Structures are given as structure tokens and as C-alpha cells.
Amino acid sequence: MYKPYVIFSFMATLFGIIGVIPFIRWAILQAVDTNPGGHLQSLLLGSVFLILAFLSVMLGIISDLIRTNRTLIEDTLEHTKKMRFGKGEQLPETVPVRSLVG
């Protein structure tokens, strides 16, 4: 809720490392095996984990945007309450648009 980049970047790194391991296994088995062409399960498993890593990055970005939006809404609500009910410091008067133009 407060630091989404930390959580989701940790998850993305974890899934990314786990996702690369099956690809390394597949590459080693392809290099050693005299009859290459098998071990597609390693590619499938690695692809699933790399997709999970990518989704974790995307969720981290979206979560950070939601956190920023929530913070801005809370600040706006606080300022609106101060203006409406007169509690706390007074907000400065706004300058009319006509005085800026003319």
C-alpha cells in the first residue's frame, strides 16, 4: 500500500530468476544431448515464470500510480475541508483571471 515498487520488484526479480533457470537447463541439455529436440517442458515452465515476472512489474507500476492518486485525493480532501469548515490555516486568495489578462 505504501511502497508497491519494493514488493513487486522483489516478486519480479524472484520470478525472473526462477524463469531463467529452466532456459539454462534447456540450453545445457541441448548442447550435451546427441539427439536434441526434447525438453520442451523446461521452455514452457521458464516462459510461465517470465510472464509472471513481467506481470509483477506491470502490477508494481499500476500500484504506484494508484498510491499516488490516493495521496493526491487525500490532499485535495484535506484542503477542501479546510476551506469549507475553516479549520487550520487559511488558504491564500486566488487571483481573478481578468486581472491577469488585462
Overall shape: it is: rod-shaped
Estimate percent helicity.
over 70%
* Strand content range: under 5%
Number of strands: 0
> What is the averaged pLDDT score?
84
Computed over alpha carbons, the radius of gyration is 26 Å
Q: Major sheet: size, sense and barrel closure?
A: none
Helix/strand/pairing class, anyone?
mainly alpha
Q: Regions with pLDDT < 50 over 5+ consecutive residues?
A: none
Count, helices = 3
Strand and helix order: HHH
Distance between the termini: 47 Å
What brief labels describe this structure?
102 residues, mainly alpha, 3 helices, rod-shaped
Protein described:
The protein is mostly helical. The chain is 78% helix and 0% strand. It is built from 3 helices and no strands. The protein has helices at residues 4-32, 40-85, 97-101.
How would you summarize the topology of this molecule?
Blueprint: H1 4-32, H2 40-85, H3 97-101
Helix pairs in contact: 1-2
